């Protein structure tokens, strides 16, 4: 199910950190029922764009418009480094988030189960591995059933099977009508799951479209080949925006 109208729309976004310009003239749309993947080199501005779209910081210029239903929680968000308050179990943590957004606290177990953490329901959050903490973060992002879910590197730090599972969960959320945005460096999984891809380079979107469209446009046989062409330059150098730190 993909609506024609975008549910979230960023128009001509700029983002500066002090004197450092990190995003320039970025426009992007998210649609219900679709997984949109944001890919790009380290430091290209993915997290900055994701945080802008999730409403966590104001862009320096430009506009972000939400066209979805009025719900207690519009946008679920998985940060790049999720952290939870110690002293609570996984289940208690999700029940707490559900109580914050007026969601169904009894559904917390379903959310845990969806990310494969049902067996860890009674484990304290401080006793989770890094990958399990990320999975709990993904479960947290879906609490309250927001129509938009934004996941910053959901597969990072997960074993290959779990990574694939998390991308499948993203696809299931989209099948349920949610607009999903995720950032990732795993181009194989992106190619497998994403309906649309945005390629960010030096704070600008340099390519956008479905994987098939991008492959056609660039006469490339894989998303990796598309990425290489779209990014250009040295792939083994981090281009630091704003120059020396
Ligand atoms: N709070 C901040 N203050 C100053 N500069 C920042 C801040 N946060 C990010 N930056 C800079 O903005 C640029 C983009 O960072 P961002 O985290 O958005 O990139 P990214 O594409 O998500 O990178 P990665 O793939 O490594 O996670 C980088 O040059 C980074 O150093």
From TrEMBL:
Family matches, as InterPro entries: AAA+_ATPase, ABC_transporter-like_ATP-bd, ABC_Transporter_VariousFunc, P-loop_NTPase
Keywords: ATP-binding, Nucleotide-binding, Transport
GO MF term (any one): ATP binding
ABC transporter domain boundaries: 8-227
Name of a matching Pfam family: ABC_tran
Name of the protein: ABC transporter ATP-binding protein
Organism listed in the record: Halosolutus amylolyticus
